[in-house]
Design a protein that fits this description.
This protein is an alpha+beta fold. It contains five helices and 16 strands. Residues 7-132, 154-273 form the VOC domain. InterPro entries: Extradiol_RC_dioxygenase, Glyas_Bleomycin-R_OHBP_Dase, Glyas_Fos-R_dOase_dom, VOC_core.
Amino acid sequence: MENTINGIHHITAIAGNAKRNYNFYTNVLGQRLVKKTVNFDDPETYHLYYGDKEGTPGSILTFFPWEGIQTGRRGARQATEIGYSVPKGSLDFWVNRFEKHNVIYNKVAEKFGEEYLTVLDPDGLKLELTASKTADNRLPWETDEVKAENAIKGFHNVTITTNKMQPTADILTGVFGYKLLEQNVNRYRFITDAVENANIVDLVEVAGEVAGHVAGGSVHHVAFRVANEEILMQYREKIAALGLHITDKIDRNYFYSLYFREPGGVLFEIATDNPGFAVDESVEELGQNLKLPAQHERFRSALEKSLPKLF
């Protein structure tokens, strides 16, 4: 984990009703609410972070829940599937759990020698629970109903659907240091060996696929992980040298970020490990209180009244 892209940092998606989103990810999937804050650019909307006990990069799925937002459409130029890693032998547990909670899922299938279960969240976001064929020793968050032997470990992969895979592949291999691991028909699996988990990107090439529409139930962006700000800015130079527009460094309180749109149309972020989610509350208290950036602290009273109650 030196001057490299260290796999996926987090993935951000769009939801509708905030309480429904919270109930699904914490109660059904058994994830921890790691951070309850607001969209820094739209502070009347939550930004909710779900993940493991300490909010480890590679485990964090975040949401902007906009009440009443229209439903998106999966298609090209999008991240279309989010893959979680679960223990081998746990898929029957998840099938039974999804039936109990009336969650839409498909029967267990297989790709690249791994069994996986596809499920839709309440907004239609497509998730996959994959029993990885490689060891995953990450310690999951446990709840009363979802114990470690079945619990989600963190990300396994993310899938991007594209009309032409090579320009995106060039970013993954030429800039981010990924390599092509294997191919099955039109699905190309890229991996980085900089980290052991949350290190896979699948590109699915469908030449005639209509571009998707990012709205409710869609991935907004995929964030890749670097160790610190110095490395972050090295990547800024690399990407700018390719002629791609990339933002200046942005302080997101829990990490520093750069954003750019890769040639295939998906919004990529590069985010630092530092300072982490325990910078403004202890690990034990993560997600319990509304945390606001300094620029919005003066609106706390009004926001606490207007934002929907989650619990």
